[in-house]
Amino acid sequence: MRITYGPWGQTLAELTGAARAAEEAGAEVVWVPELHRSATVSAAAVAGTLTRAGVGTAVALAFTRSPLVTALEALDLDELTGGRLVLGLGTGTRRLNETWHNVPWDRPLTRLRETVEVIRAVVAGGPMTYEGECQRLHAPGFHRPHEPVRTRIPIYLAAVGPRLTRLAGRIGDGWLSHELCSPAYLRERVLPNLTAGLDGRDREELDVVVSACCSIDPDPATARRRAAGTLAFYAGVATYRDFFAFHDLAAEHAAAVTAFRAGERPDVPDRMIDPLVLAGTPDQVAERLAGYAGLADTVKLTPAVHGNPPEQVRRNQARIIELIGTL
């Protein structure tokens, strides 16, 4: 497995410093998210500090920019990274699209497939016209005068549900997991859908990337409690009902959704944390990480952030980067 990392920073300067430290420790790709920062701006900031590691977005929201803008930003980022960009795209949830960004959510599978098709056509320098069911582009006189570093930039798709996962297997260069993804869920739910989606493609053409929330501390109980905030953040989302039910956590998830809708922080028992987060001592986390061997091609480690003060996240991040170095 390749080991990659999603750095954290209170400032962009701290984010880029963590990215550089992860590269020096051996991380093969550095991934930046889109929630409290722009994925593409963060990727540009990180790109200027790295010399070997790839730079990935995990994930940039697929529908909140036009496909043309996403393609142009990808081309610029590929230039900044010297051809080391990985464009990770995700649909986000209905609520996030409609109420946060005021963009359509209808037919997300069709919209995502067409978004990818437009981006690839623009990156390849192809015709600047596209007429789909959800996406349209009509710019026949447009010509980008800058020579691209690559005319094919890898596009990875984030997916949880079965239909979107099959789509990732069919059209993606890679698949990105949710930040919570156990080896059992990967083996029994994800890989069969990815394989079904390949539709004649070789499995080696698809990079299967597990995103693993990580919390390391000399005291395992402290490590688990630090990870509770991330579980609370995701457990309050009703969309993930089937995911939690697979792990025999349906009742806990339902209680978390009820608490979230009441404006309260969900309670997170240890039985929710243990199967879904890499939490414990460095040796315990390394042992848990080995559980993905033979299933995932790549693991993306990220520090547990939600609900934790910056000084705790910094300590955890330093321990994760140290672990990458030992691996």
Short description:
Keywords: Monooxygenase, Oxidoreductase. This protein is an alpha/beta fold and 327 residues long.
Q: In words, what does this structure look like?
A:
By secondary structure, the chain is α/β, with parallel strands linked by helices. The chain is 46% helix and 16% strand. Helix 3 crosses helix 5. The termini are close together. Keywords: Monooxygenase, Oxidoreductase.
List the helices and strands and how they pair.
Blueprint: E1 2-5, H1 12-25, E2 29-32, H2 39-47, E3 54-57, E4 60-61, H3 67-80, E5 85-90, H4 94-100, H5 108-123, E6 129-131, E7 136-138, E8 155-158, H6 162-171, E9 174-176, H7 183-198, E10 207-216, H8 220-235, H9 241-246, H10 250-261, H11 270-273, E11 278-280, H12 282-289, E12 298-303, H13 310-326
Parallel strand pairs: 1-12, 2-3, 3-5, 4-5, 5-8, 8-9, 9-10, 10-11, 10-12
Antiparallel strand pairs: 6-7
Helix pairs in contact: 1-2, 1-13, 2-3, 3-5, 6-7
GO molecular function, one term: monooxygenase activity
Domain Luciferase-like: 10-295
Protein name: Alkanesulfonate monooxygenase SsuD/methylene tetrahydromethanopterin reductase-like flavin-dependent oxidoreductase (Luciferase family)
The number of E-state strands comes to 12
- CATH architecture descriptor text: Alpha-Beta Barrel
What's the average pLDDT?
Answer: 96
CATH fold descriptor: TIM Barrel
Please state the CA-atom Rg, rounded to the nearest Å: 19 Å
Going by CATH, what is the homologous superfamily? Luciferase-like domain
Unreliable parts: none
- Helix % is 40-55%
CATH class: Alpha Beta
Q: State the domain count.
A: 1
Strand content: 15-25%
- Helices, by number, come to 13
Task: Report the major sheet.
Answer: 10 strands, parallel
The dominant shape is globular
Distance between the termini: 11 Å
Helix/strand-derived category reads alpha/beta
SSE string, helix = H, strand = E?
Answer: EHEHEEHEHHEEEHEHEHHHHEHEH
